[in-house]
TrEMBL record:
This is Uncharacterized protein. Residues 39-59 are annotated as: Disordered. Keywords: Signal. Residues 1-40 form the signal peptide.
Amino acid sequence: MTQARPETLCAWRSSSSSPFPRAMLATLVTFVLSPSAARAESPAPAPSPPAEAKATTAPRRVEVRLSLSRAAAEALGGESRVRRLLEIELDDTGTLAPGPSGPLGDDVGHVWIDLPSPSEVLIEARLAERAAARRFLLIGGLNPDVAARLVAIAANELVRAQARPLRPRKAPAPRTPTPKELELAARRAPAIVWSAAPSFAFLPGSSGTLWGAGASLGFRGAGVSERATARWLTGPTSAGPTRWFEVGLAVDYRVYLGSSVRLALGADAALGFLHLGDARATDGILGARDAWSGRAGGLLGVDVRAFGPAWLGLHVSPGAILRPTRFETAGGLGGTVEGLWLGVDLALQLEHPLARSVLTNPR
């Protein structure tokens, strides 16, 4: 408040020659001494923020329900003391409920205090559906008052940690498969397999050597290949110029010794058709030169990767002729096409995977 000095007022009163009338002087003194003038000179208080802004910045309030075991209450000086200390600690976190029970809610927390051993206190806290937090405190040698304060501080920290907002989990970045994983997936991926090969066959029982070409087409899955095969062979035997055409089936399994080397183990069987050029009779039929036969045997091979899906292989198929073919030549000599069969193929194989997604995601 602004006050006028007495000497100033006296000077105004004693001045009889002042041109101002007495009424105007009284008005000026009243305005100076009035408290409203002081209020006008003081700065106006800042406007308070709206209630909605306060609500958005206010921390999350939690209703805490406390439960103590009988042993813990006795070691900490009584349940009422622990409740009072915890209520003080929860001043900026939440409020302490009057009892341990009540309706459920997202802002309801439970605190359990137990005494597993005479020198150790267990504190557990859980908020809504979150995982329970646990802490152990050693209170050996402490008086109940100090122990109760430590327990209240620890319980408040657990409740505060539970009340913090959960951070959204980041989705894991897609993992790029390694070259080894891609190789393993490619070995077991379904694929169409076809091959072409120069082919040779040795018939020791008929003193024959045949040569020609072979081809196959099949399906491979989980390392096992099932193929349909065909061969066209020709060459000299004891029956003269001989032609052999066959169609058959082969099954093999690939054992990888490395990324570019593998073994082939399997079996094959075929139905063959013979043409004996110098035969006068075949199977007792005069003038017949054609007959049918068959063979079966194993399959052993080594494949080496040429490039990408292409493999070069050396395959050996030892076996035997299943149906002997008797013949008689024009000179009266007789014989039989029978006995062992040893086939050799130099194959070029191409594999076309059917499932590209398996190669990009081996899992």
